[in-house]
Amino acid sequence: MSDKRILLIDDDHDLADLLSAYLSANHFTVDCCFDGQSGLKKAFSHEYDLILLDVMMPKLNGFEVLKALGSQFKTPVLMLTAKGDNNDRVLGLELGADDYLAKPFHHQELLARINAILRRIAITKEHQGEQTQEQLLQANGIVLNHATRQVTCQENLLELTSTEYHVLTLLMQQQGNIVSKEVLSEQVLGRKLAMFDRSIDVHVSNIRRKILPFSQEEKIKTVRGAGYIFLPGESQ
C-alpha cells in the first residue's frame, strides 16, 4: 500500500523538519511549504490525502488559505493553532477546517488526529459504489447519499466538509433521538470531548448555516446540556 501524502504548510522550518521525519517514519509522504501563498499553489497543483495548515504565516495566513481553497475543496485540513487561542480554532472550523490541534502538541497526538480524519475518509469511500436504497438517508427534506457523498436539501446541493458530512450522517442515523456531544466527538472526531471544546458546536452551526438558504425549517435541534436531535419532519 502506498504512503498517504500530506502537505505541511508552516513557516517554522525546525518544526517542519521534525514533523517530516516523524510522519515519514509512520508511512506518510510529506511535502513542506513555508508560506501560505506557496502552500496554496501546492494544494491546488497536487493531490494530497490531508493538509496540515498553520495559522500565522507570511504572504497568506492560514485563514486566507482556507478562504482561497473554498467550500468545494475536498482534501481535509487540520489546523495548527496557538495554544489557548479559542477564536482561531472557531474561525478555522467556520472556514472549513476539519479539526484543529493547538501548539505545542505531542507528535503522537498529531498522528492520532491525522489517522482519525483519514479513517473517516476511508469509511466514506467504502460506501461509494453501486447505489442502493440503503445508501440513501432521507429525512426532513435532507437526502444524504453514501454512494456519492453528496448531500442535498430540497434538491439543492450542500457543500459540506468531511467532518460536517459525518456529523450530519450520525445525527440523521439517530433521527428523533438525542445524540450527545460526547458521542459525536468520539465517533466523528475520534477523541473524547474536552472541557470547553466547541468543535462539535461549530460543525453543527456550519451545517445549519449551509441549510438555511434552502429551508427555514429547523432540522437540527439543540437540547441544552444534552446534545443535538435531527428532527425527522412531519412527513416521517
UniProtKB/TrEMBL annotation:
Q: Where is the protein localized?
A: Cytoplasm
Residues where 4-aspartylphosphate occurs?
A: 54
- Domain (Response regulatory) spans 5-118
Recorded GO MF terms: phosphorelay response regulator activity; transcription cis-regulatory region binding
Q: Determine the domain of life of the protein's source.
A: Bacteria
Q: Give one GO biological process term.
A: regulation of DNA-templated transcription
Q: Which keywords label this protein?
A: Cytoplasm, DNA-binding, Phosphoprotein, Transcription, Transcription regulation, Two-component regulatory system
Using the record's annotation, list all stretches that form the OmpR/PhoB-type domain: 134-232
CDD domains tied to this protein: trans_reg_C (cd00383)
Question: What do the Gene Ontology cellular component annotations say?
Answer: cytosol; protein-DNA complex
Question: PROSITE patterns given for it?
Answer: OMPR_PHOB, RESPONSE_REGULATORY
| DNA-binding residues (ranges) | 134-232
Q: Name one Pfam family in it.
A: Trans_reg_C
Q: Mind telling me which PANTHER family this protein's record contains?
A: REGULATOR OF RPOS, TRANSCRIPTIONAL REGULATORY PROTEIN CPXR
Q: What is this protein called?
A: Response regulator transcription factor
